[in-house]
């Protein structure tokens, strides 16, 4: 995918909304000064996409950071997610209003179902469809939905998800799922694109970084975008936030794109969607759920 030369550029969702190629993820970024500063630094560096979730417990700080940056709210693509314990139609509607209040905004650009909670996600999706029709959110989507989840949802929904946010990196490509989403006009998005820091342990990536005069992170993030995948690397470090944005002044060759695809090992560093099965979380308790997310 060529002509990706502007950090403020993006992919167009099937409803016509533009979603920036690159965003800042804020999982494990503490509320207060830590997340406020990270958001400010990102927006100062040109980012126009911030991704949070209710379970991250930092929506207040994200909202404060956006305001403190001086960047107009309408220029920021702001994303949050409904957590598992809040799924179901009515609970989702309440959770959405809670997120708006914490973020100090009157709309979201994208609202996602965080995980496919068995027996719940269809009702949750109905709530998202309502929010979309009421124009409280500009786009709706899902996160961590495998092909069978998507097929099941599409069978009973009136609106196709605009986005599917998945763990995606050189060791977990899931090309079949990428292709399924593309065929159904669902924008693919990468969480944990840097393998929670483990990409720096891959010698082949170090060699490729030398070839382009770039960092390993920049190589991987550029691969994401050239594959048509939105990417949201997380960082609390100002220099790394800035460096992660410097991926719009070079282009990977087709051979190198294919080489990176070939590193796939079907290896996850985050929890498998099956591990976040709702009955298991209830049975094993909240601490189990947090441990799964921290894997």
From TrEMBL:
Residue intervals of the NADP-dependent oxidoreductase domain: 22-264
Protein name: Aldo/keto reductase
Annotated site location: Lowers pKa of active site Tyr: 81
Active site per database record: 56
Key words of the record: NADP, Oxidoreductase
Family of this protein: Belongs to the aldo/keto reductase family.
Annotated positions binding substrate: 114
One GO MF term attached to the UniProt entry: oxidoreductase activity, acting on the CH-OH group of donors, NAD or NADP as acceptor
Transmembrane segments: none
């Amino acid at each position: 995918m060529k002509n990706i030369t502007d950090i403020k550029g993006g992919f167009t969702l099937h409803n016509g909304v533009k979603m920036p190629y690159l965003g800042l993820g804020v999982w494990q970024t503490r509320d207060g000064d830590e997340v406020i500063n990270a958001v400010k630094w990102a927006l100062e560096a040109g980012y126009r996409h911030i991704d949070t979730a209710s379970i991250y417990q930092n929506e207040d700080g994200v909202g404060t950071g956006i305001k403190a940056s001086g960047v107009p709210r309408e220029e920021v693509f702001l994303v949050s997610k409904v957590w598992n314990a809040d799924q179901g139609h009515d609970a989702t509607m309440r959770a959405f209003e809670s997120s708006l209040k914490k973020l100090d905004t009157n709309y979201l650009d994208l609202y996602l179902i965080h995980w496919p909670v068995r027996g719940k996600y269809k009702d949750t999706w109905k709530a998202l469809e309502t929010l979309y029709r009421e124009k409280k959110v500009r786009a709706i989507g899902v996160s961590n939905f495998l092909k069978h989840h998507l097929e099941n949802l599409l069978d009973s929904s009136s609106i196709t998800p605009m986005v599917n946010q998945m763990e995606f990196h050189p060791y977990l490509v899931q090309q079949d799922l990428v292709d399924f989403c593309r065929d159904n006009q669902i924008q693919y998005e990468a969480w944990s694109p840097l393998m929670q820091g483990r990409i720096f342990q891959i010698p082949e990536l170090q060699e490729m970084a030398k070839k382009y005069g770039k960092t390993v992170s920049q190589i991987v993030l550029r691969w994401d975008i050239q594959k048509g995948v939105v990417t949201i690397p997380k960082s609390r470090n100002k220099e790394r936030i800035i460096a992660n944005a410097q991926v719009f002044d070079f282009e990977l060759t087709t051979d190198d794109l294919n080489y990176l695809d070939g590193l796939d090992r079907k290896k996850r560093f985050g929890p498998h969607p099956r591990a976040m099965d709702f009955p298991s979380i209830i049975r094993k308790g909240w601490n189990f759920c947090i441990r799964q997310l921290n894997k």
